[in-house]
Amino acid sequence: MKLVGTIAFACVYLNVIVNAGPIPKYIHLCKRNDPEVGKCVRASIEVLRPHLKSGIPELGVPTLEPFHIPKIDIIRGQNSNNFRAGLSNIDVFGASDFQIKKLKVDVPERTISAVVEIPVLMLIADYDVDARILVVPVKGEGKVHANATAITGKAIGKYEIEERADGRYIKFTTLNVNLNVGDYNVKLENLFQGDPTLGQAANSILNDNKEELIKHAIPFLEEKVSEILLDTANNIVRNFKYDEVFPEK
Ligand SMILES: *[C@@H]1O[C@H](CO)[C@@H](O)[C@H](O)[C@H]1NC(C)=O
């Protein structure tokens, strides 16, 4: 009896999904001639937040908690010095606690701008480094743990309406992010094959020169974050017709 009930429920449920049309319920629609369209989009993002945490694979939305990045090359070693620095198996925790401070949608200009704050981000990854950081050699491979606090991002995205065989779709053409990081702490394990003195010295360099290192790292981080956001945004919006997801009225 239980099994029959379960199957019946599954059939009804599947039927509901199939008949629900292309826009899932948790996508709260906004109208493009709404004078407060920014407010509406912001409210939609709040409705979406719990779904963003776990991701929506069928819509190309990756899991945000943690956010996984397979690999980032920081220094690629194309210079004669052959220095390298890279991270792999990166998990970032805390991004889903983002707070939207401002959000503006300019429909005629096809521009979305936002100011977002994230109180704390925690990163765990595998690192591989052979480089100089502020003239000090740093070499090793192992786990890296890092925390950053008071992260502010200002993003401006421009989109186009793309004509496809079956209708019009949104496509983001550029997405530029400006970042600010309040503070951070980082720990590289197993530097210099586990030599505790050299390892501690290198970690101190990383944590005692924050202002300078943040200044150096920001342009790189901005480029990476912009790239990731542009990709993610397009993976999401390509699933929806413009006039369905962002109707005129
Ligand atoms: C990051 O924060 C967590 C939680 O507060 C803490 O356990 C960890 O030691 C911190 N890591 C670093 C590198 O500061």
UniProtKB/TrEMBL annotation:
The keyword Signal applies. Belongs to the TO family. This is Protein takeout. It holds the Pfam family JHBP. The keyword Signal applies. Keywords: Biological rhythms, Signal. InterPro entries: Haemolymph_juvenile_hormone-bd (IPR010562), To_sf (IPR038606). One of its GO terms (biological process) is circadian rhythm. One of its GO terms (cellular component) is extracellular space. Residues 1-20 form the signal peptide. SMART domains: JHBP.
